[in-house]
């Protein structure tokens, strides 16, 4: 199971890094989402992997998993979800304003002239 | 427990939604409430600064949970100083934005401004590494909104780039925290300091990876090479007052480096040793050089100032990377100075831009209104930034150089002096082209009407006055700062305050 989780995180991170190096906003956003999924699983795994163990105290439990990492993952999920929403909106706004979805700020001179009529 | 410690976080956090929900259609109400909030924040932060300078570090246990389990806020001299600096800068920037009407050019300026303050103050006060991540996100999400305030294609496009860059940074931050947690089993900074010092040698590899990842994240925030690429575009396309407020945001990165690498990974930690120092120093030196070359190469005023900001971060990190109390004193003095000087320069650049219409100073244009006053202000702020006497930039660089009399003295001194010269040349070139060059169409043109913005000019003067005060009272300030560095390097006051002070 360790190998499966570790290689899953690795694959997802690799795909994410590849995608954020692309030139258009859509792959970049997908890449960022992949990276955030990878990191969520990674945080989860940092509390050690376990199957079928409860995080909270109960009389029937044989052992426990780390509840803190689950709380951390929850926070991280909420934040990365919100941030993805923000960048989608901004990319959309930028696409509608400039008519292109390139992420690099090429030709700063013309871009500046457009913005200050 | 002193409940005022959480006030710098709670006050803007309550005020911002209130502004959004209750007064979204009334700009003057927003101005009044937001200004009142910022002034109150300043008073509170000055009170906290006074408490912190007389007392040992104080801890605020959120929900009254004991230390390594619950989240804590810690008020020590460093955090109190940074919060006070933020609040003072915020008052000036906000009055400037109100006076020049920047806050009317888009929606929700004041709400975003308050959220930004909440994030910055929280990042300075928190004593928990994961909580630091959360406050980083708060300040970032507000900064995304502020950065694209006023709209425009170029600004939006630079904004998307900025957000993407910082999202990668946030992901790295989470990887770093999870790695550190997997080794130590804690994220409370004081507890981490204890646990990391006791780590066995076989855990060295993981904790080193975690430490380096964390350093990369703070390098993104602090615009340290090779992570500085976001800064010039972001700062030069951001609205002037927002860029001035962002002057303190790079210092959040510097603060985090100082806090984490003096408290958790001091140079005598067995598992890491001097490795962070050895990484930070070359990066800081390259940052300094790149920033200086950037000031020489830019043709737009805002971009020039942004590169000057990178130069100042380089100087700051050179002093930090020494990791000695004396160098830390110098670094903190330079930090205070460079924040104020950079903010002043951004505000002046914004005033010039507003009157001139074009940011590109290589284009000859008719003379601008209030030409003499603005050129004098630009001259003063440029001198402060470049580190020429008589202003505090000179003293700051002097302190930094005095503290770096080590093995690399020849290299560091040469580079600091040469980059200062390059910065002077860069600013001189910009200033002479902006204010002195013969103008394209002067004949037959009426003198431009001066814009009456007394408050905006007052704020620029206030920032300059703060620089003068820092110069005049350099002695007492550095004395106080050396007390601060002693407390930082002693480490035990902070750790004892968090872990061993009994619950009330």
In short:
Chain A is mainly alpha-helical and 117 residues long.
Q: What is this structure's SSE topology?
A:
The complex is a heterodimer of chains A (117) and B (504).
Chain A: H1 2-20, H2 25-46, H3 67-98, H4 108-115
Helix pairs in contact in A: 1-2, 2-3
Chain B: H1 7-22, H2 27-54, E1 58-61, E2 72-75, H3 77-100, H4 109-125, H5 129-147, H6 153-184, H7 189-197, H8 204-221, H9 230-237, H10 240-263, H11 275-297, H12 301-322, H13 325-356, H14 371-386, H15 392-403, H16 409-436, H17 454-472, H18 474-490, H19 492-499
Feature tags:
heterodimer; A: 117 residues; mainly alpha; Helix Hairpins; 4 helices; 0% strand; B: 504 residues; two-stranded antiparallel sheet; 2 strands; 74% helix
If you had to describe this structure to a student in words, what would you say it looks like?
The complex is a heterodimer of chains A (117) and B (504). Chain A is 69% helix and 0% strand. Chain A has helices at 2-20, 25-46, 67-98, 108-115. Chain A has 4 helices and no strands. Chain A has a single domain, classed as Orthogonal Bundle (Helix Hairpins). In chain A, helix 1 packs antiparallel against helix 2 and helix 2 packs antiparallel against helix 3. Chain B is mainly alpha-helical and 504 residues long. Chain B has 19 helices and 2 strands. Chain B has a domain at 274-440 and 454-493. Chains A and B meet through helix 2, helix 3 and helix 4 of A and helix 5 and helix 6 of B.
Overall form of chain A: elongated
The largest sheet of chain B is: 2 strands, antiparallel
Q: Mean of residue pLDDT of chain A?
A: 85
Biggest sheet character of chain A = none
N-to-C order of helices and strands of chain A: HHHH
Strand content of chain B: under 5%
CATH names the topology of chain A as Helix Hairpins
| Percent helix of chain B | over 70%
The spatial strand order of the largest sheet of chain B comes to: 1-2
Please give the alpha-carbon distance between the first and last residues of chain B.
7 Å
Q: Which regions of chain B contain 5 or more consecutive residues with pLDDT less than 50?
A: none
Give the tally of β-strands of chain A. 0
Query: Quaternary state, please?
Result: heterodimer
